[in-house]
Write a structure and sequence with these properties.
Blueprint (H helix, E strand, L loop, with lengths): L2 H26 L5 E5 L7 E5 L5 E3 L3 H9 L1
Antiparallel strand pairs: 1-2, 2-3
Length: 71
């Protein structure tokens, strides 16, 4: 295996470990305070996101969406 492939494999392994840790943090978060944000899901959707852990926790109301877009 060449050096570049080995480096890519290590980086992918590191990425999986980081993603696992993020999922664990989000699963244990109480999501006490949320904010309205545009999320990077491919379509730029507006969602309610936990301020502490960054997990999507719901959808804003129509009024909240309009207020967000006016900013």
């Amino acid at each position: 295996m060449d050096a570049k492939r080995k480096e890519v494999d290590q980086l992918l392994s590191d990425k999986r470990e980081i993603e696992r840790k993020i999922e664990e943090i989000q699963a244990n978060c109480k999501h006490e305070k949320s904010v309205i944000k545009q999320v990077a899901d491919g379509s730029g959707s507006i969602r309610r996101v936990c301020e502490s852990c960054g997990q999507i926790v719901g959808y804003p109301s129509l009024e909240e969406t309009y207020a967000f877009l006016k900013k």
